[in-house]
Design a protein that fits this description.
The complex is a heterotrimer of chains A (about 220), B (about 280) and C (about 70). Chain A is about 70% helix and about 10% strand. Chain A is mostly helical and about 220 residues long. Chain A has one domain. In chain A, the strands form two sheets. Chain A has a two-stranded antiparallel sheet. Chain A has a two-stranded antiparallel ribbon with strand order 3-4. In chain A, helix 2 runs antiparallel to helix 9, helix 3 runs antiparallel to helix 4 and helix 3 packs parallel to helix 9. Chain A is elongated and about 70 Å long. The termini of chain A are close together. Chain B is mainly α. Helix content of chain B is about 75%, strand content about 0%. Chain C has three helices and no strands. Chain C has one domain. Chain C is rod-shaped, with a radius of gyration of 17 Å. The chains are: A mainly alpha (about 220), B mainly alpha (about 280), C mainly alpha (about 70).
Chain lengths: ~220, ~280, ~70
């Protein structure tokens, strides 16, 4: 379908070889939003989580030590950059690659935390994310095989055939697992109990933004 | 620029009055006198003038930036909606960002109530599924997502509420989700004090309330525009008042659902809405 | 004047200049949108931080610098 009917008028193209990136108000807003949040993560300190203690009136403060802070901030910034890349990319395989990268980084951001429940839930989410990378990549590969191109601009001009529908369904299933929407959100939600607010922002932000972009891409590919 | 500022003022004023009206109707259904309709306006102004201080344990400057982000995304919403009538997909991207703000305003202060609200916001983010399903159904029906083209489509083919009624009902459930004191408002329930807003007090609270009133107006504006076609200003106001009253009656007679039940209810509505709409389109 | 007040005044002046500039002159649409998205929230925030109530001098330390936890 016409990209302009979906995301607003096309402002321009960035040609990268045979893949052309297209800039629309939608992709620009998501790209700028992801970058601004990445900048906020880079300049922010973390919060100190306060909880009540059993048996006394004191408070239990959980803060993040310097080593953990540095590694988690690094991973969060890379995750933010991967999200921005996924928002602007015009190549289907790049998109699935960024999604898998985001999945791995999400696990990495919480794996430095020393809370058992969080680590358990990160482990379970990690299993789902790894399993989901298979339908993601195979969906992109099937679409390449069925149409001969991975460029989203070219796929918009091609009449979709049943293999394209099947490939898109596989991508959708892989995305549901990677980003942690229903029914996989139940385990991913527990990952957010850790301190380190700016870093867990990017976990949630990346999931929501890639779902929105994926809907745009799948609608472009599957309609004519 | 002038049109952006005028629309912003209309959005803020109408949003606050509608939220106040909602509270009044809820109170009357529950046989109480209720606060005056301008109560929300008075609260917002009162909080604006109260002193704020930043918790020592908060993640700075993130704590302030997240409140500014809420205002910035809704100014973008005003630009994309009434001013330029751009892509619906962008407006739903703004809703995703709103969910992010709910999540991170809670966790940025270090307070345990904020943290609980943060985790509940992640749960309820999966109930954004109706929102995305809605996009697909509207797109399949009208072959466009640009609001001005959807308005043109409706002036030719009649309002979308008659052609895709299930999608309209699904969006209505979404409106209930976003309303104040609703049965799905797990992120702001009183069992967690004020949820993600707990540690944003004084000026920051007034700021958040101002942005939320704009978001309520925009949500109703989008619903009326996408499902009821080209409307005059008076029709918009009447439609918004009617919808707010209906939602207030529903909120007044229902309790807040448990987080798991809330999310399951919304996802069930999403499935019924999308599969029902697709089946109706095929038949 | 402490840091918060200083930054608030600077933010307020920049946002008023920016919004006024966009109102008076005929700028391309994308510049107007960028100015409104960034400067309107800054304007609202800084106005709030400047007009907010100030504590009485004696009580200031107790009310503002006491952490929200503790008794």
């Amino acid at each position: 379908m016409d990209i302009a009917a979906l995301s607003g008028e096309i402002f321009g193209f960035i040609p990268l070889g045979d893949i052309m990136l297209y800039i629309t108000p939608f992709s620009l807003f998501m790209f700028a939003g992801a970058l601004i949040f990445t900048f906020l993560i880079a300049i922010s300190k973390t919060e100190t989580q306060v909880e009540a203690e059993f048996g006394s009136l004191e408070d239990n403060r959980i803060s993040i030590d310097l080593k953990e802070f540095k590694i988690r901030r690094f991973l969060a910034i890379i995750c933010g950059l991967a999200t921005s890349g996924a928002m602007i990319t015009g190549d289907l395989f790049n998109f699935t690659l960024f999604v898998t990268l985001i999945g791995i980084l999400n696990i990495g951001i919480v794996s430095a935390v020393k809370i058992i429940d969080v680590l358990d839930s990160a482990f379970q989410y990690g299993l789902i994310a790894m399993i989901s990378s298979m339908p993601l990549f195979s969906g992109a590969a099937l679409i390449l095989g069925a149409t001969g191109t991975l460029s989203i601009l070219n796929l918009a001009q091609i009449q979709p055939n049943p293999m394209v529908y099947f490939g898109s369904a596989l991508i959708l299933i892989g995305l549901l697992g990677e980003s942690g929407v229903a029914p996989f959100y139940a385990t991913k939600a527990e990952m957010f109990r850790t301190p380190g607010s700016p870093f867990i922002l990017i976990i949630h932000l990346s999931s929501l933004l890639i779902i929105t972009r994926a809907i745009e891409i799948l609608l472009i590919i599957n309609t004519f | 620029m002038a049109s952006i500022l005028i629309n912003l003022l209309i959005a803020a004023f109408m949003g606050t009055v509608l939220i106040g009206l909602q509270r009044k109707v809820m109170a009357r259904v529950q046989m109480r006198p209720g606060p005056p309709i301008i109560q929300y306006v008075l609260h917002t102004l009162k909080f604006y003038l109260k002193e704020t201080s930043f918790p020592k344990t908060a993640a700075m400057p993130f704590y302030i930036a997240i409140a500014s982000t809420l205002c910035a995304i809704w100014v973008t919403g005003i630009i994309m909606g009434p001013v330029t009538q751009g892509s619906l997909l962008l407006i739903f991207g703004i809703y995703a960002m709103h969910k992010i703000v709910e999540h991170n305003a809670g966790s940025s202060s270090g307070s345990p109530y904020g943290k609980l609200s943060c985790v509940r916001a992640v749960f309820s983010a999966s109930a954004e599924l109706p929102l995305f399903a809605l996009l697909i159904v509207v797109y399949l029906q009208t072959h466009t997502m640009i609001i001005s083209d959807i308005i043109t489509y409706q002036s030719i083919n009649g309002p979308l509420i008659f052609s895709i009624p299930l999608a309209g009902i699904m969006f209505f459930v979404l409106l209930i989700t976003k309303s104040h004191y609703s049965l799905f408002s797990i992120t702001k329930g009183k069992d967690i004090i004020s949820g993600y807003e707990t540690e944003h007090f004084g000026v920051m609270r007034g700021y958040l309330m101002f942005s939320e009133s704009i978001s309520w107006y925009m949500l109703l504006w989008i619903y009326l525009t996408v499902f009821f076609g080209p409307l005059s200003l008076i029709s918009y106001f009447m439609g918004m008042i009617v919808i707010s009253v209906i939602i207030a009656i529903i909120n007044a007679i229902s309790p807040i659902l448990n987080p798991n039940h809330s999310v399951m209810f919304q996802i069930t509505c999403a499935f019924i809405g999308i599969f029902g709409s697709i089946i109706l389109m095929i038949i | 004047m402490d840091k918060l007040k200083l930054f608030s005044y600077i933010g307020l002046i920049i946002s008023i200049i920016g919004i006024g500039y966009a109102l008076i002159f005929n700028l391309p649409a994308w510049i107007v949108y960028t100015i409104s998205i960034f400067l309107i929230p800054v304007f609202l925030l800084t106005i709030g931080l400047i007009v907010m109530a100030k504590p009485i001098k004696d009580e200031e330390e107790e009310r503002v610098f006491e952490p929200f936890i503790g008794y």
